Amino acid sequence: MQNRDDLERRELDADCAVGGAAPLPAAGIPDRYRRQLRLPGFGAVEQRRLGAARIAVIGAGGLGSPVLEYLAAAGAGRSDDGGFLTVIDADVVDASNLHRQVVHTTAAVGRPKADSAAERMRAINPEIDVRPVRAMLDVDGALGLLAGHDLVIDGTDNFPTRYLVSDACEILDVPVVWGSILAYAGQVSVFFGDAGRGVTYRDVHPVPPRPGEVPSCAEAGVLGMLCGVIGSAMALEAVKVITGVGEPLHGRLALFDALTMRWAELPVARDPGRAPVTELEDLTITCGLPGPEAPGALAAVHGGGLDGAVPGSVAAEDVAARVAAGARLVDIREDHEVEGGMLVGAEHIASGSLLADPAAAGDLEGAVLYCAAGRRSEAARTALAARGIAVLSLDGGYAAAVDAGLPTEAPRS
Fold first, then answer.
1. Most buried residue, 23, 56, 288, 359, by CB count within 10 Å?
2. Which residues does the annotation mark as catalytic?
3. What is the pLDDT of residue 411?
4. How far is residue 180's CA from residue 269's CA, in Å, rounded to a whole number?
């Protein structure tokens, strides 16, 4: 791990400062850490590593909240050990944040999230050195802001920043603990460029999504408790990376389904054809713009008329006639989304699979695609049109179809 020698030097300096070159015995560790020191393989040395760690946490929101609270409580970034915790967030606390961003209180509404989180962390553990940074990570400042840290934790909720964090840390050769949530699903992994040999975010998601292709939490919704599950897992991975205890999720992607309380795991490997990242790329234009919010907005983007109709879209009331005439009806939502039901006669092909290999889906010409609210299906329609495949997007998606009275059924296995 990058900066491991420097981290171990800071551990030794901390031990010497309290009276000896040998690792401090557990008896010299403050009482607040005694329970974790009883764990097999987690002793005074591991606690000193945690205290000496310099960790940057990007995002003091839903995922950042449990990460920050648990790292503070565990003694990460203790000032006496030479470590610190950097909290990076440019946003302010809003009332709509409070159901999931538990590091903030009602009294913090309107305050900068970085300051509010830092105050809460110091209240949990006055021994830690917390450094709030009220800034948005961008191409110009990312390398300077993240340099000098032993670990970066990415709790952001947008694709441009996720790619930026991964790329900056690949250049700096610093590991990243990453997590993501949407609706009832969550993901966790550890990325580390390892001088061109390791796995990064770009190996899991090689192509940035188009604007509106993936719904945001504001659109799909999210349970606050899911943030706790995934954020806690991220904090656990951070402790493992820093202390050397256990096996971090490097080269593995952990997937969590809140509805079934099941974890799954996918192996991930570096793309052998991918060159190491050597410079940062601004993706705010290509994948960071907010997607259109309604059919009328889609019309403005794609040249629709004043009535809000989108070229290439079909109204829910017209779907049955098209299917009766032989058109395919394709549900492009994710697996967890279709568990709640599908339109009768539809087939399920998740958008990622569809766009990765349209030929595998057979003849799509004239097919009607639908997602939850019409945004992803419109993005898929546009992407397929660029490949010479003409399909239609169901205006308003599954929600509009249900409102229009189209029959639904349980997904077919």
1. 56
2. 217, 371
3. 84
4. 19
